[in-house]
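Hi support team,

I submitted a single chain yesterday and got back a structure, but I'm not sure I'm reading the token output correctly. Could someone confirm the output below corresponds to the sequence I sent? I've pasted both exactly as they appear in my results page.

Thanks,
R.
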Amino acid sequence: MTFPSSDQLARLQNFGRSIGSTAYVYRPTQVEQLAELFELAARQGFTVGMRGAGRSYGDASLNAGNVVLDLRRMNRVLEWNPETGVIRVEPGVTIQQLWQTTLEDGWWPAVVPGTMFPTLGGCLAMNIHGKNNYMAGPIGEHVLEFTALLPTGEPITCSPQAKADLFHALISGMGLLGVFTSITLQLKHIYSGNVWVQAWATPSLRRMMADFEPIKAESDYLVGWVDGTAGGSALGRGQIHRTLYLSPGEDAVPTQTLKADYQILPDTFFGLVPKSSLYQLMRPFMNNWGVALVNTGKYWSSRLLSHHTKYLQSLVAFNFLLDYVPNWEKAYGSGGLIQYQAFIPKATAADAFADILRLTQKRGLPNYLGVLKRHRPDKFLLSHAVDGYSLAMDFRVTHGNRPRLQNMADELTEMVLQAGGRFYFAKDSLISAAAAARFLGEDTLSRFRQFKAQCDPQNLLQTELYRRLLASQP
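Hi R., thanks for writing in. Yes, this is the structure output for that exact sequence:
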């Protein structure tokens, strides 16, 4: 193997197309190749970053001028037991491959993100959450065991019972301690490929949060769309979607709804417009006035036409709304988008989110897509979770507004930290090392440094996110 080879040089971007860098990209298929690449990189003075499907909104899978291991070719299903719902896979298997393998047998991933395209290795590295985090926790809580290769060449096997400290560090560890080589998951038994969805409009963010609390314990999924352009008494207005799995016998034709073909998203919008070109039709509205107009229409249509409606929807259509419009991120234009997601404890969330929305509007940089979710704490080392809420906000990036976005993000970050909040590294590209240290705390940082020294004594595993937030910590 020629290493590094100029033939492997490639320009990589984050999912939001707002950050990019060039690296030597290698696509291994076997564990032995991982060990060889680690050895070559260490010998020649290169660092190594991990990359799955590249769906992070930030710089978690970029490693400028160095080596990136793209793990998507390590995508074999190693074992599947349709009686118990336990599956063992390689790290390059995607959420899509996972549900397509298991759904017909009546099993669904207990936790999924808003898109089906991330790899499971990436999902564990960032410890992804879904619209049911308040109940199911992050994906790491459904991992029975994993094997990993440390950059020293040592293979390890971890579970919640064996090497539990490493288990809770590598899951959430952003690929900075080792690389997953196999993942064993427990899936959820289901009785239909459909779910019941209840939808209703809420006149403000405070009302939305008040509606969440009494129903969360009896909801399988709960999510709110938030209009970031509305102000005054309508600040944070939006729509709630509450979802329930079907009970045994409730679906008259489960053999049909559990088929993968039934779950395929349509290719056209309203049967007319090809979805492959829909992002181009969205572009003229991707400005403050256009988004305000679209959001106003969406809110009033939900209030007048679908207020307190109940309907059946396929699991894929409900869970993977971000996949409904292919390449939707391109609608934001050449500058792309950034996402800013804050996790704030329940006691302070309503006031903090209201202040955040007001500030974005005051700065003339309202978010174009806002999503509210409920959360609970977990045991993972670099956890973003709180007993409270998250608000994810998408902002369009242009050549002219990038400095203003960064300045506003600095203001928002201080507000979040003052409210006792936290951040999620899969989404972040804007916070500073000082801000990361404040919410993680010295104890967590000290434990991370100990694991880094133990698992990666040569500091071989690095990414741009690592160098931005963690490498400079004393």
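A quick pointer for reading it: The chain has 16 helices and 21 strands. Let us know if anything else looks off.

Best,
Support desk
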